[in-house]
Amino acid sequence: MVERLKLILDDMQFYSLRGGRLAKYLLLRIDMEEWDMENFQGYEGVITLEHIPPAEPPDSSVWLLKFNDKDRKDWTNRLGNLTLLSGRKNSKAGVKPFAEKKNVYFKIKTTPFKITQDLAKNEDWDMDSLKKRHEEMIDKAIRIYVDKVEGK
Fold this sequence. Notes:
With 152 residues, the protein is mainly α. It has one domain. The protein has a two-stranded antiparallel ribbon with strand order 1-2. It has helices at residues 2-9, 21-33, 63-66, 69-75, 87-93, 98-106, 114-117, 127-147; strands at 47-51, 82-86.
């Protein structure tokens, strides 16, 4: 069961599985696990999936310097590159560099999503950051869906 789940979570096109519904559901479930449910107020508005390095960076984008063509192809739609945002913040973040995206995520009114708030600890976003977060997200999902079922 664990190996099958890992294969799904590690899929290079995880973003597109089940029409994107699986990614959104899983990220929401991981996010809810981070909350003290006694204080959880719920989420308001439209919830969207955000690609941290964008799916289609413009030719002048710093993302093209940080991620080569192969890495972008292999990692853009993976679990570790996805986070949650409100619809408005997602459109404002767009294809901006990471520092500017962080301003959108956290300035004025911070995002309510704990998994997105965790991105604040990163100074920059590169392959090491992405791979580390990817493994963390897989581990969190396994703890939720396997360990709890097996009573661990």
